Amino acid sequence: MVDKKIALFIDADNVSARFGKQIIDALSSRGEIFIRRIYGNWEKNILHGWNECILNFSLRPMQQTDFVAGKNATDMSLTIDAMDVLYGGRANVFALVSNDSDFTPLAIRLREGGMTVLGLGNAQAANSFRAACNEFIDLDAHVDEKIPVTEVSKPARKKSVAKGNSPVQLNLFGEDKIVELKPQPSPEKISPSKIVTPVTQVQPVVKVSTPVNGSKVVSISERQQQSERDKKIRQVHELLSEVAKTHGDAEGFTPLCWAGQTLRKKNLGFGIRDVGYSSFQAFVKAFPDRYEMIHRTNGENYCFRCRTNTDGEIERLHEALREAVKLHGDETGFVNLCWTGALLKEKNLDVKNFGFGALQPLLESFPKLYEVRKAGNSVSYRCKTNSDGGEKIGQLHDVLREVAKAHADADGFSLLNHAGTAIKSKSLSIKDFGHGTLQNFVAAFPNLYELRKVGKIVRYRCR
């Protein structure tokens, strides 16, 4: 492809600047990159990491202001320019750098126009966009090829300056602004009171004090952020469980693309990146005890399914929590979380496998089972022994028995779905009692119920 004319279009909002060198290297061997455009709202600080790439690789930054807060118009601007190049007839290869599925129609249209379309992105690239390209280049495959990215590039040559003056460098993204780079003394000569962070390298600093005993004291704001992240992670787990039930095949596997589509439809107000993962693929891989993932070549790419032993594991977790109270509880029944954490570690149980970042939010998610008490930095809990928990679980069993009588077939089995509908009408929730699904709740009482599963259809009967 040495004689090919390549038109490069980069969506800076969706691809990291650390891939800049890889992009150019991958395309240079295929032909002449005669158009090199990169799109974004360059007033945003988050895009300034592309500064050095623009200078080193002769990229042409295309400014696209956000007309509406929270929504950019970069995609439309890039698409219009790509169509102009198509009709101009100057290029025969189009390289689209993005992970966004919104570029799928553009890739399809370019191919219909007889063009060769190269897609470039990483693991979170939409499956529809990958399929629409003639070839997709995974930038994550060469993560070792990185270039240093800085806020302000170094001067091309040294300038002699008078004593007391400092060299200056024009900021590419500023409006005729000058950033002063002051010379600093050697590290051993800097006194703590005189350390000054340069303006171009200011980063948010989280202050965490460390007591003499080495234990880490986390600020209230950090706890709130972690709690919010844990809540979002639980929502993602619930979403994946819902997707698996709705779109799972005979083996229980579901294409991961359904997870992304469902998350967008639900409009939960956050994306998978907001919980610390680059893609759903990375999220599923982070919980091997909860999910199983395979790669297929039939167009579905990566598929996942929920492991059937997940709720069995959470039963073990609840048993360990009750055991910790018996072993280390005080006269009021409360036990400190440090004792419980040690016991869980002994039993090889990790709360992260159930979608929680810490033990405290897990306990708080089961208000019918546990009471949590906070005193300063100390957190403890106890199992609820009041009649409410026993009464509610008794109601669940009553509903199961009533449904079994009302909908029993010739063998005495009834559809579990009927019981689920009846339980929901009573404003009862299986999750309040440590179970993710009704099937696993019923399976936890083998002396009371018998389960029968044929394909995706689950029936039960009372013993």
Index terms:
17% strand; alpha/beta; Rossmann fold; Nucleotidyltransferase, domain 5; single chain; 14 helices; three-stranded antiparallel β-sheet; 17 strands; 463 residues; six-stranded parallel β-sheet
Structure description:
This protein has 4 domains: 5-142, Rossmann fold, CATH 3.40.50.1010; 220-306, LOTUS domain-like (Nucleotidyltransferase, domain 5, 2-Layer Sandwich); 310-383, LOTUS domain-like (Nucleotidyltransferase, domain 5); 387-462, Nucleotidyltransferase, domain 5, CATH 3.30.420.610. 35% of the residues lie in helices and 17% in strands. Residues 143-184 and 186-218 have low confidence and may be disordered. It has helices spanning 20-28, 51-56, 74-88, 104-112, 127-132, 220-247, 257-266, 280-285, 310-328, 337-346, 359-364, 387-407, 416-425, 438-443, and strands at 5-11, 32-40, 60-63, 93-97, 116-121, 135-138, 168-170, 178-180, 254-255, 291-295, 302-306, 335-336, 370-375, 378-383, 414-415, 449-454, 457-462. It contains 14 helices and 17 strands. The chain has a 6-stranded parallel β-sheet with strand order 3-2-1-4-5-6, with helices on both faces. The chain has a 3-stranded antiparallel β-sheet with strand order 9-11-10.
